[in-house]
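My main concern about presentation is that the manuscript never shows what a single data entry looks like. The format is easy to grasp once an entry is in front of the reader. For illustration, here is how one protein appears when written out as sequence plus structure tokens:
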Amino acid sequence: MKLILVRHGQTYSNERGAIDTVIPGASLTELGWSQANDVVADLLTYEPDAIWRSDTLRTEQTATPLATRLGIEPVVRPGLREIAAGSLEGATKESAMREYIGTMRAWIAGELDLRLGGADTGRETVDRFDAVVREIEESGAQRPVIFAHAAIITYWLGVRAQGITEEMRKVHLHNTGIAVVEGTLDTGYHAQRWMHIYKP
């Protein structure tokens, strides 16, 4: 199965640099809506046969142009939502973002029992995303698009995808940025794309 993972478009929280992991969360800005429309052409090249998204307003809005174009009703799962920020929720200070990203990197390095801001552990976070990926695999879809969030996509690929290059690791997943992996949870997923970087 080929998984096409897409970060949502720009939100008002993104615009002011705030950590936003609550439900339903902020809506898309005007730029965010433009991004959601513009990414459709790129996504259509993968010939998607299903759309899944988290239960946030921003993924609902970002998925709408593709869903409308294909006539597909997105499947909504809370397990695809962003990594919970806990006590860091709403913070705009650089130190809070460093703690948020630093904890995620520690999880990728193997410290899965750390809690982020007193909220979820790395193990709990990857398990709930895995559960949805397993459901997608069992649905029979071959090229599903998942609309989710920057940190959870980065983290999940960091622990589940093989073949991630150093060049890929240095590139931040921008709004409506695309990541593509192929495989299954049982056989392992292999990275094929991260933003503008493609594996041969």
In short: The chain has a mean pLDDT of 97.
